[in-house]
From TrEMBL, chain A:
Entry superkingdom: Bacteria
Pfam family, one: bPH_2
Protein name, as recorded: PH domain-containing protein
Regions crossing the membrane: 12-34, 40-63, 171-192, 212-240, 346-366, 372-390
Keyword annotations of the record: Membrane, Transmembrane, Transmembrane helix
Domain YdbS-like PH, chain residue ranges per copy: 62-140, 245-325, 390-443
Length: 474, 161
C-alpha cells in the first residue's frame, strides 16, 4: 500500500496534449514569421524541437509523478524542476470522481479527481490516468471514512437507494426542446413564416424576385435542411452529454453518472447544495416538462457548464414531486403559491420590460418609419413578458424553506433554505415607500461566488414577513 | 421584528467631513477637463461654449456631491450588530436594508485610507461567502472593537459553507 505508484503511461499523452494546446498560442508568432521571409524548413525545425522538448518533459514529469496512500493520507509527489510534495488527509476530501474520456475507455483507464473543501482549486488533486480497478480501489480506500459507497462499481447497485435513469425517449425529447434549439426555432419561425408581415412590401417584392430568380424551391429546401441539421445537432449533443444519465441518492450525497462517449461521474454532498431550481423553459412549459438543477457551493463540478448542476435533464411536471421526494427529501415541494406582487406594482413590471423597446420604437419611427412595425411587435411582446412576469412571481413560506416562483424568460421555481441564504436585502425608493412596495434581494452561494435573486416590487407586508422569517433574532 | 424598523446606530458624524473632502478632491477632475476644454478652444479655435456648458454641469455636480449628498447619506446610514445578525441600512433615493446572519460571516476587515485617517475614522467590511457589506465610517476604536466583536460572534460553529 505504501509503495509509491506511477500513473499509467497513457498519462504522458495527456500531458503532451495539454501542453501542446497551451503552446499553440506561442506558436502563432512563429507561423506568422514563416509566412513572411523566414525559411519554412527553419520553422519546421523549431517546431519539431519544441515538440520533442515537450514530449521529453512530459515523460520526465510522468516519471516524477508518484502517489501513495499512507494511513489516512494520500501523498502525491511531482515536479521536474520544482519538486512538490502534497499530502491530502482523508478527512479533508469532499468527493472523489472517476471520469473516463474516450482515450481512457480504449485503454481501460480512468481519471481520478479528488476534491477538497474550499474554493482553492489548486489544492485539489487529480490523477490523469490510472487503471480502472486502481481508480475504484483508490475511491473506496479514501472514501471509506464517511460512507460505504462501494456501489461506484457499476455491478453492485444497491436496491435500497433511490435511483433514476433517463430513458432514451426522454433524452431525445430533451434534446429536441433544448434552449439552443429554441432560439434557432424562433429565429427560423420569424424569418420564414412572418417575413411577409413586417417587411415593407417594395423590399419584400424585390427580395422575392431575386430569390425566385435563384430558384426559390432550392433555397427553401436548403433552409429546411439547415434547420433539421441544427436540430439534429442539438439532439445529438444532448444524447452524447447526458446519455445514460443516472442519479442515485445515498445517505449524505447524490451520485450522478452520465455521458455516452465520455463517462462522467459526479458526487454532490447534500450539505453543499445551496438551492434547488425547477425550470420550465418557454418551449418546455407548454409541453408540461421541467428540468431540475441545484446550485452547489465550492468544488470543481462542470467548469464549462455554468453554475447550475443538472439533477435531471427532463421530467414531466407531474413527476417532479415524486422525484424530489425520493432524491432530495430535505426540500419540501408543494405547489401552492401565493402571489407576491400586488396589482399596484404592475406598472413597474410593464415599464421595466418595455422601456428599451419603447425607446427603440421612437427612434425607428423617426428615422426609418417604413420599419416601424418591427419595434411595435417587439414592444407588444415585451409588454406581454412584463405581464407574465408579474403574474408568475409568487412564493410559499414554510418554517425553514422559502419557495419562490420567478420568471426571467423561463419559469423557475427556487427552493431555498433559510440557513443557506447568505444575506437578505430589501430596498425601497420614495415611490415604493408611498405605495408600500419594496424590492428584495436574496443572495446564495454557488461556484461563481454567488447568485442573487431579485424580486421586484412586492407587498411591504410580505417583505416584512420574509424578513421576520429570515431573522433569527427574536 | 427586524427589517421593519431601521437599525439603531448611526455612523460617525465626521463621516460627512470625510465624504465632503473626498468629493472635493474628485471635483479636481471636472476642473481639469474645463481647463483642457478652454485650452483646446484657444489652440484650435472651436467654440468656448463647450467649456462654458461643462462648467455649469460640473458646478451643479460639485454642489450636489460636496454639499448635499454627504449630509443626506450620513442621515440615512444606520447599522446595528446583534448577537446573531448584522443589520445595515443605507441609500438616499433607494433605501436598502440588509440582514446578514452572523453564522454566514466569513471575515471582517477594517480599512483606513488617508482621508479617513485624517478624521480618525475607519471603515469596516463584512464578507460572507457570496456578498460583502461595508460600514463606511466609524471611529477608529469603535471600528476595531466592532470588528473584534463580530469576529468573536461569527466564530460560532459554522455548519458547512
Amino acid at each position: 500500500m505504501s509503495s509509491p505508484k506511477r500513473l499509467h503511461p497513457v498519462a504522458i499523452i495527456f500531458t503532451v496534449i495539454k501542453s501542446l494546446r497551451q503552446l499553440i498560442y506561442a506558436l502563432f508568432p512563429i507561423i506568422i514569421l514563416a509566412s513572411s521571409d523566414f525559411g519554412l524548413h527553419y520553422v519546421v525545425l523549431i517546431i519539431s524541437i519544441i515538440v520533442v522538448i515537450f514530449i521529453g518533459f512530459s515523460v520526465l514529469s510522468w516519471l516524477r509523478f508518484t502517489y501513495r496512500i499512507e494511513g489516512d493520507q494520500l501523498r502525491i509527489e511531482k515536479g521536474v524542476i520544482v519538486r512538490q510534495k502534497r499530502t491530502i488527509s482523508k478527512n479533508r476530501i469532499q468527493s472523489i470522481d472517476l471520469t473516463q474520456g474516450i482515450i481512457h475507455r480504449i485503454f481501460g483507464l480512468t481519471k481520478v479527481q479528488i476534491e477538497t473543501a474550499g474554493s482553492d482549486r489548486s489544492v485539489d488533486a487529480g490523477l490523469s490516468a490510472v487503471k480502472l480497478e486502481e481508480g475504484q480501489h483508490l475511491h473506496n480506500e479514501l472514501k471509506s471514512k464517511y460512507e460505504n459507497v462501494e456501489s461506484v462499481v457499476e455491478s453492485d447497485k444497491q436496491t435500497n437507494h433511490a435511483q433514476h435513469t433517463i430513458t432514451v425517449k426522454r433524452l431525445l425529447l430533451a434534446g429536441s426542446t433544448s434552449a439552443s434549439f429554441g432560439i434557432v426555432l424562433s429565429l427560423f419561425a420569424l424569418t420564414f413564416t412572418e417575413i411577409e408581415a413586417f417587411v415593407p412590401e417594395s423590399f419584400y417584392n424585390r427580395t422575392t424576385n431575386l430569390l425566385l430568380s435563384q430558384g426559390i424551391e432550392l433555397l427553401i429546401v436548403l433552409g429546411i435542411v439547415l434547420f433539421i441539421l441544427l436540430w439534429m445537432l442539438g439532439i445529438l449533443t444532448m444524447v452524447v452529454k447526458y446519455g445514460k444519465f443516472t442519479i442515485t441518492r445515498y445517505e449524505n450525497e447524490l451520485f450522478i453518472t452520465r455521458g455516452l462517449l465520455e463517462k462522467k461521474q459526479m458526487t454532490i454532498p447534500i450539505k453543499r447544495i445551496q438551492a434547488v431550481s425547477i425550470k420550465e423553459s418557454l418551449i418546455r412549459q407548454p409541453l408540461g416538462f421541467a428540468t431540475i438543477s441545484v446550485e452547489i457551493a465550492g468544488g470543481e463540478t462542470e467548469k464549462q457548464n455554468a453554475s447550475e448542476t443538472l439533477l435531471f435533464p427532463l421530467l414531466r411536471k407531474t413527476e417532479v414531486k415524486g422525484f424530489l421526494d425520493e432524491i432530495l427529501p430535505e426540500y419540501e415541494n408543494n405547489s401552492t403559491f401565493r402571489k407576491l406582487v400586488p396589482k399596484r406594482a404592475l406598472p413597474y413590471y410593464l415599464l421595466r420590460t418595455s422601456m428599451i423597446p419603447l425607446i427603440g420604437l421612437i427612434g425607428i419611427a423617426i428615422f426609418m418609419p417604413e420599419w416601424v412595425i418591427l419595434p411595435i411587435i417587439l414592444l407588444g411582446l415585451s409588454v406581454i413578458l412584463g405581464f407574465v412576469r408579474y403574474r408568475t412571481t409568487s412564493f410559499n413560506l414554510s418554517e425553514n424553506q422559502l419557495t419562490l416562483q420567478l420568471r426571467m424568460f423561463s419559469k423557475e421555481i427556487v427552493l431555498l433554505k433559510s440557513k443557506r441564504i447568505q444575506a437578505l436585502e430589501r430596498s425601497q425608493h420614495f415611490l415604493h415607500r408611498k405605495q408600500n412596495l419594496g424590492t428584495m434581494k436574496l443572495s446564495i452561494l454557488n461556484n461563481f461566488g454567488g447568485r442573487h435573486y431579485n424580486i421586484n416590487e412586492l407587498n411591504e407586508e410580505d417583505l416584512d414577513k420574509i424578513g421576520d422569517w429570515y431573522s433569527t433574532e427574536t | 421584528m427586524y427589517m421593519r424598523q431601521p437599525p439603531s446606530e448611526r455612523i460617525a458624524k465626521d463621516a460627512i467631513k470625510a465624504w465632503k473632502l473626498t468629493a472635493s478632491l474628485w471635483s479636481c477632475i471636472p476642473i481639469l477637463i474645463v481647463i483642457a476644454l478652454f485650452v483646446l478652444a484657444y489652440l484650435f479655435d472651436f467654440s468656448y461654449w463647450y467649456g462654458t456648458i461643462f462648467i455649469a454641469i460640473s458646478l451643479i455636480e460639485v454642489i450636489l456631491t460636496v454639499i448635499f449628498i454627504p449630509k443626506l447619506r450620513w442621515n440615512r446610514w444606520r447599522y446595528e450588530v446583534f448577537d446573531q445578525e448584522i443589520y445595515i441600512q443605507h441609500g438616499i433615493l433607494i433605501v436598502s436594508r440588509t440582514l446578514v446572519p452572523m453564522i454566514r460571516v466569513q471575515h471582517v476587515d477594517t480599512k483606513q485610507g488617508p482621508i479617513l485617517k485624517k478624521y480618525g475614522l475607519s471603515s469596516l467590511t463584512v464578507s460572507t461567502a457570496a456578498t460583502t457589506h461595508e460600514i463606511p465610517a466609524l471611529l477608529e476604536e469603535e471600528a476595531a472593537a466592532l470588528r473584534d466583536r463580530i469576529s468573536e460572534l461569527a466564530r460560532v460553529e459554522q455548519d458547512d459553507v
